[in-house]
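Q: Could you predict the 3D structure of WD40 repeat domain-containing protein?
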Amino acid sequence: MRPFRPALAAAVLGITASALLLPSGVLPPGSTPARADGSGREAPSGFTIEDSRIKESSGLAASRAHPGVYWTHNDSGDGPYVYAVDSRTGRTVARVTLDGVDARDAEAISIGPDGSIYLGDIGDNLGGTWPDVRVHRFPEPKELTGDITVTPTTYTVRYEDGPRDAESLMVHPRTGRVYIVSKKQSGKGALYEAPEPLSASGVNTFRRVADIDVWATDAAFSPDGTRLVVRGYFDARVYRWENGRPVKELGRPVVPLQRQGESVTFAPDGRTLMYGSEGAHSKVVPIELGDDLLPDSAPRRKGEDKAGAGQAADVGSDGSGHTLTLGAGALAVVAALALGLRWLFRRRTA
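A: Sure. Here are the predicted structure tokens for WD40 repeat domain-containing protein:
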């Protein structure tokens, strides 16, 4: 994907202003560190991707068949590979090779209701030079052991209003329909809907159906299909999903400060967002949702209804669940941001 040097200043100003306005230890309602849900089960934990081959993790999807496993893949520069990572150890338990695929710029991954994995080779770092992009589909392996080779079904994709960059592909968990969110630096992206059914023999023209005001790097549906989350580098939005459309923006969940925030998926519990980043040994950070951001069917704690989980603290970017202190500690947050962005600029221009 393309480095994101422009527009960082505006994002930092927004984050800094939020930090200065909030009282100590408090962030906007609707997001909390991950913890046990109403069923008594432990909520998902953060983890570090230990595989040295995964240097640009660009998509993330929770496995349907293997509890605790997350699927990811590299950005451009790798081969046609998808990795299964065990969140309990951070280690890769299987690498899937897509036979016959010439990987160009894989940016997103999602799993459909039938258990098929969809890999979106939809990136276009030059902002719309490819006349078409591709989506590859294959069944999630029943066993995860070492190296696995599959022959995927490949779909050719075009947009009704011409080529564009995109990094977000989602498959609805109930209908199986495929969607893509375009990526624009201005933040004025759009949601595109696939035709039904997808055709492996012809061109699939995706139709623009809604505006998405996020500089989107990934997106995901909740397990019950009632929420859509779209993330950018520094912000995210949660939308209520009804009748195939995002009908209302419900709020902005916390986004952890990461090296280069590239991915998001819902954990199987439906309460927790898992945020991923590019970089060697990158960390996946859990953030629990609350209030109206919670999907309709997500388990709730005792005494918690659909309207109120209250305010809560942020989660550090180390994946440990440690919280940041804001308000009184706002200057420390601003300093950390400045140092982090300085490091990013040096890294990207090296």
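Q: Anything worth pointing out?
A: Residues 5-29, 307-336, 338-350 have pLDDT under 50 and may be disordered.
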